[in-house]
Each structure stands twice: as structure tokens, then as C-alpha cells.
Amino acid sequence: MPVATNKQYDKWRGDFDLTEPVERELDGDTRELVRRLADRPENRASQRTFDGYTLLWFAQRSAVFAMRERSAERIVDGVMAVAMIDSSNVDFRDVTGPLRALRCAAQAIGADVDSAFEKGASLADPKQRTSFEALRKRPENEDWCRFSGVAIVQTKSGPGFVARGFKPYRPTCRLDEAGVAFARLVEGDRYQSSQIMRESEIQPFWLSGTGDWTLKRVLQRVVATVTVSADLRPGNGADWLHQHLLIMVAELEDERAARSILTLAVKKQRRRNNFEMFAVGEGRLFCLFTGRCVLFGGTNYETRESILRFIPGAAEILKAAAQSRDS
User: What's the CA gap between 81 and 79, in Å, rounded?
Assistant: First the structure.
């Protein structure tokens, strides 16, 4: 059966979401192509028209499906997909992330995929080969997730990935799961989430001018933060392409610190800003919800009033997260 080579994953269907990806026809087509070329590498030239980034996303999606199904075969498919990439079609720096995610998934399910990485290195072109060999030589006790740029999160569909930053992350509740819930909240509206990142931070910019010394002090008492980025779907206004939501969810050391940052947010909300916002709190948890047009001179899709429609859902998510501390 011929394999289509001109298809791509669709951002607006959520295909780039690695928390709860839905298997698509393209996954099956790509898997068929990858297995055929892995068995007969002399036909590798036949995939040069296949989009390199489609293969990279297939590899990352395969890592998630592998964890869900506890399937080493899925990981091998992902490794072979990366090996098939023509390095002239992608930025070589984008290759390492998917390979690390596959290593992370293999470690999570206890799968030995050293032979797959060895075969991948033998099939890859010289520029790609260095990425395979660098990862293949890491120590056996390596914490692959820590250095992969992803973290495993539990969802209703099973394990998935969120991005990870470099800030301290010591939550006492299921904060990363709250991040997933916020992504689903805005996706039920007019937005598509583009990234969920833990080990992030609240930039002082969002609350500046409300008491900067107090803000600096209270931000030092944040123990964990998750941020959710989302983009407005096509067709919602003239500037839809440049409309962006950013949701910051933080746990603070104690309720007093959480009340302090909430007070600063309320002050900021009352002012005239170039973005729209609101904030809610629950115990030691704080959420700052912002919306703006990132195009210079553009008009915000959200108004001071319209963005408030998210308050009930946000409050419910924070309450559930706070209760997860005791469960």
C-alpha cells in the first residue's frame, strides 16, 4: 500500500500535544514507512520528500504511546523515524530532544533499546549519527527525563509529557496535572494549547508596578510553577494569529505568601495594562491568567470583561489541585 508523504500533523487538532495525543492516520502511515525503510535501508532515498519535522513529531508521539502501551516496539519505531531523517531538511539541534524523550519513555517502562539506538546510528546520515552516539554512550543510571526537556505527567488517558524548565520544582500537590487541566479548559473555549511547562517561573513583568520590593520577596517564596501557553484558533477576529493566552500556576511556601501575590495581582488588574488579566487563589496556590495580542499595535481579542469567563473553571481547577495534596 503506498504511503502518503505530503501529510503533516495539525496543530489545531492538538497533534502537537504530548500530554494526551490522539492516534491519527498519519501515525500509521509513518510507522509503515519507517518499518519498511528500516528493513530495507537501500530504499532510504525514497523518503526524502517526507517532512523531517513530521518524523520528529512522530518520534515524540511514539514515546508517549510507548508509555501508555508499555511497548518497546513503539520506541523502536520512533528511533528509526529519527534515523530516516535527511539532515538537510531539519535543524540538527531539533533531533536530540525526540531521541531523549524516547530514552525517557524506555526508562519509564523498563525497556532495553540500546540495540535500536545502535541500529539507528548505523542508518542515520553522518550529521545525525553523532546525536545517536552521544546518547548511546550515556551512563546506564542516567535520569533520561531530567535531561530530555520533558517530564512525565499522569492524565486521564495515561502517561504523557510536559515540557520542563530549569527552576526549582517542589510541589506538595499535583501541580503538573493542574497545568493539563488548564490546557483542557481553554481548549474547550476558542484556544489551542501550545505548551505546558513545569519548572518555569512567574516573570515579574506581569505584576510590576504594584509594589516591586514586595513582589520580589514573594516570588522568592514560590516553590513550584507550571505555565500553559495557548493560541487563539483561526477565524476569531482579524488578529487571531497573534492572540496569546499565558496561564501561570504557582504553589507558594505558605498561604500568607499566596495572599500577598494575589493582592498584588488585584492591584495590577485595576490598572490600565496592554494585556488583560485576572488572578485567583486557593490556599497556597495562585493562578495568573493573561491574554494579549503580541503583534505591535494589534488589538487584544480578550477584553477586561471577556477574560473573566475563565474564572469559574480556574477556581475549580485550583480547588481540585489543593485537595490533591491530601489524597
Answer: 5
Q: How many domains does the chain have?
A: 2
Q: Quick one: cell of 259?
A: 495572599
Q: What is the SS3 assignment for 122-168?
A: HHCCHHHHHHHHHHHCCCCCCCCCCCCCEEEEEECCEEEEEEECCCC
| Strands of the 243-252 sheet, one edge to the other | 150-155, 158-164, 191-198, 222-232, 243-252, 285-293, 276-282
Shared domain check, 310 and 187: yes
The residues near 223 (Cβ < 8 Å, ≥ 6 apart) are: 168, 169, 170, 171, 172, 251, 252, 253
Instruction: Please state, in angstroms and rounded to a whole number, the distance separating the CA atoms of residues 177 and 42.
Output: 45
Task: Give the residue numbers spanning the domain of 313.
Answer: 165-323
pLDDT one-digit tens code per residue, 97-116: 999 999 999 999 999 888 88
pLDDT value at residue 113: 87
The pTM for the full model equals 0.91
Distance CA 89, CA 207 (A): 42
Q: What is the CATH number of the domain that holds 295?
A: 3.40.1000
In a domain, 153, yes or no: no
Structural contact between residues 286 and 262, judged by C-beta atoms closer than 8 angstroms:
yes
6 in any annotated domain: no
